[in-house]
Amino acid sequence: MRALILETPGNPPKLAYRDTPEPALGPRDALLRVLACGLCHHDRLAMTGVLRRGIPSNAILGHEICGEVVKLGSAVTRVALGRRVVPLLTNACGECERCLAGQEHRCISGQGIGHGVPGGFAPYVAVRETALATVPDGMPPEQACLLACPTGVALQAIQDVACLKAGETVVVTGASGGLGVHAVQLARAMGARVIGVTSSESKLGPLMELGAEDVVLAGGELDFSEIVLAMTGERGADVVLDTVGSPLFGSTVRCLAQYGRLVLLGEVEGRPAQLNLAEVLFRDAVIRGSTGVNRRQLEQAVAMAAGGQVKPVVHATLPLRDILIGIGWMQERRLFGRVVLLPNG
């Protein structure tokens, strides 16, 4: 099979589209024909060398996968040939104490798909059956591939980490990006008032169509935290879902209300963040990180998409060999939603 190989990280990265062996199957593995694979900021950071830890040489990236099961290991019982599936972001064993506790995304022996083990920037990928969830056959693969990351990732952060309640005010930074557009929809579906933050004026209308009650532009003369405070009668937001990280970190903290919860979902630049600790202390604020998605939240994301409560947002689809076009759009902040790659396209 011909896969996309990351030979040398950099800006631009050195990539090769070359023949590699088809993945070998363990007894509990399923072989997936990759139908679509999303292009995540995690992939961009790995390609540019910002993210290096745990990534092998000549890596095959890509963790936002929708695939068709075409071959089964000898002991597989949970999935059937011909079914469409999406994997968790971790090749979870299904047997350790964390998996049994519903924390498959923190599996003790699990490795990240497209990180520690080969991912979906290839025609085929092997995944442990315990890391797979079935999706409806009628769901387009380019949408289904976004159900674990970014949709499930946002859902887990909102429900399990932020513990969002109906009627609360939520600020979503990077609201027009792949993670942000899904966080906006999910928070709105759960009864929150959503304020989106974006750097592009052209994306204000589309964000409001997705459920944002208000949208604030970042990067103007007035810090967006001041606008959020004005919009909330100087109270601030109950929850901030920060998909951007260090570039906006100080401002996101200043958006918080008393006892506000800030959930960090992304880091786009990999640089130190600046923060006056008094901003945290006098708000009695909680700051937590959240990555990954467990099986329960992935299955809920599938159900919500099937029921129309959230719609995976695809900016464009590209053949795998055109990945650098998508990376360029990402760096230029042109995206509204995700770029999806078609390895067999």
Any overview of this molecule?
- This protein is of the alpha/beta class and 345 residues long.
- It has two domains: 2-146 and 312-342, Quinone Oxidoreductase, Chain A, domain 1 (Alpha-Beta Complex), CATH 3.90.180.10; 151-289, Medium-chain alcohol dehydrogenases, catalytic domain (Quinone Oxidoreductase, Chain A, domain 1).
- The protein contains eleven helices and 15 strands.
- The protein has helices at residues 41-48, 97-100, 141-144, 147-161, 180-189, 204-210, 224-231, 249-254, 278-281, 295-306, 323-331, and strands at 2-8, 14-19, 29-39, 64-72, 84-87, 124-128, 132-134, 169-173, 193-198, 214-217, 237-242, 256-264, 286-289, 314-319, 338-342.
- Strands 3, 4, 5, 6, 7, 14 and 15 form a seven-stranded mixed β-sheet that branches. Strands 10-9-8-11-12-13 form a six-stranded parallel β-sheet, sandwiched between helices. The chain has a two-stranded antiparallel ribbon with strand order 1-2.
- Strand 14, helix 11 and strand 15 form a beta-alpha-beta unit.
- Helix 4 (147-161) packs across helix 10.
- The protein is globular and about 60 Å long.
In brief:
This protein is α/β, with parallel strands linked by helices and 345 residues long. The chain has helices at residues 41-48, 97-100, 141-144, 147-161, 180-189, 204-210, 224-231, 249-254, 278-281, 295-306, 323-331, and strands spanning 2-8, 14-19, 29-39, 64-72, 84-87, 124-128, 132-134, 169-173, 193-198, 214-217, 237-242, 256-264, 286-289, 314-319, 338-342. The chain contains 11 helices and 15 strands.
